[in-house]
Amino acid sequence: MPWTQNYSALAGSIGFTSLAVAVPILYLFWALAVKKMTGHIAGVTTLILTILDVVIVYKMPVSMAISASILGVFNGLFPIAWIVFSAVFLYNLVVEAGQFDVIKSSIASLSDDRRLQTLLIAFSFGAFLEGAAGFGAPVAIAGAILIGLGFEPLYAAGLCLIADTAPVAFGGIGSPIIAAGSVTGISANVISQAVGRQLPFLSILVPMYLIIVLAGWKKTVEVLPAVLIAGGSFAITQFFSSNYLGAYLPDIISSLVSLVCTAAFLKVWKPKTIWRFPHEKDTKSGTAVKYTGAQILKAWTPFIILTIFVGIWGVPAFKDFVAKDLRWFINIKHWPGLDGLIYKAAPIVPKPTLYPANYEWDFFSAAGTAILLAAIISSFILGLKPSKTIKVFGATFKQLLYPIIMMGSVLGIAYLANYSGMSFTLGLLFASTGKIFPFLSPILGWLGVFLTGSDTSSNALFGKLQMTTASQLGLNPVLAVSANSSGGVMGKMISPQSLAVAAAGTNQVGKESSLFRFTFKHSLGFVVVVGIIILLQAYVFPGMLPHVTLALQ
């Protein structure tokens, strides 16, 4: 029997209802920050609590709540966990082949300074991985590289989580922007232009902030030229690529430009002193092994192959070819126990509208498959026997088992929040704030990413609501939609999914709560900065962003 969402189920009040349905979110904060639960336990228990909450508050049928949760779990496993697994598998193959030492040496040869290594790896290389794969791959791989160079695991993971902010909006070949366009009807290129006129301000700030967190202000000033080169080249390229090339390539182009410019600059400029951690006695790595150009090229080959494959997989024509000609995908058009049974209601839609539920996994055209194929080809180039590759595959699955459980449970929560109306209730609470809404708009995106672990999911969740609210308030709808994405990226560093991936990639499974406490204050500070930028663009510099007028549907 069909069921209709009711966003003010308690006493007809959005406020009371929001307070009630926020309990699972508050519990998740408490579980990670106070109780220090491991990520997978916190995720699973929060999912169970969310099911109970929406059944009690909204009177949602238990069968529908469970079905929505299972649909979310499936989406958490494929394609998201599939991407993360494939990326870590590729990295583990490089380590198994003994090539990781060559990669470390090639980066360390540019500088022994820990500050500059952070710029090159956490910021520039991490941004490249975000653009190529997204969904946690940059934190897992870049964090592991830093640890291999001698960084403490907590610092390595934390720094990579902070660095993985500026590129997130265009991560995964622009998937967050594409998602925002699909749910709002606004052209993805227009949203790309708007985000490209917000995030470059932070792209300059993030590298400097990273070094301040790592070494303090005085030590940051010592490497300020390199910081400005890394951040400035990234920000300028991000602006031009997002405004003139679309949403697909800003991260990849910007990160490569940043990496090349910073590396070239370090060939002609060195800091007066080499900064290393207090526990490191030597200020120089004079004993570092020198490798030939051919050896360095071989070690980096897996990532070159990764770039080529993900680039091909990200081309729309290739996706169309797979979908229309190969038809290699799993498609459940009518998700059992959910499709055709739930109605969205006003004010989200003018009149009750069926909420479709389906599951589709284009497993061949998925980014995770591209990474997996790159990993398999790389295993032959690296000289690994098939038996060794299979062994590494099994070890990777064992390594990521708990994080995968957490990813599935978090996406279960996200989908349940959507189908129950929980996300819309919370969204409507933000929408009732009137003139201050532009400041809170990115916070809504931040909350969405915290809940789902994905800027793509957050845009899909709140994009339409942001557009509708902005139009009702007489604001540029592009401003609110882009704010959802720009603010959302700041939630990436505290989302349970990101924490799980960071912990797994840096061998800190069970320490997600420590990472949460490390990154939370930074995340909060950054989203406030984004809120101020959006306020200024709303009321002081409205001409900064492209403007569209849309009829509400």
Protein described:
This protein has 24 helices and five strands. The protein is mainly alpha-helical and 553 residues long. It has a three-stranded mixed β-sheet, with no helix packed on it. A hairpin with an 8-residue loop joins strand 3 and strand 4. Helix 2 packs antiparallel against helix 3, helix 8 crosses helix 23 and helix 22 runs antiparallel to helix 24. The longest helix is centred in the N-terminal third of the chain and has 35 residues. The radius of gyration is 23 Å and the shape is globular. 56% of the residues are buried.
What ranges have pLDDT less than 50 throughout 5 or more consecutive residues? none
Largest sheet: 3 strands, mixed
Q: Which class of secondary structure composition applies to the elements?
A: mainly alpha
Cα distance, first to last residue? 26 Å
Question: Averaging pLDDT over every residue, what do you get?
Answer: 86
What is the spatial order of strands in the main beta sheet? 1-3-4
Secondary-structure element order, N to C: EHHHHHHHHHHHHHHHHEEEEHHHHHHHH
Number of strands: 5
Share of helix, binned: over 70%
Radius of gyration: 23 Å
In what range is the share of β-strand residues? Answer: under 5%
Give the helix tally.
24
Q: Globular, elongated, flat, extended or rod-shaped: what is the shape?
A: globular
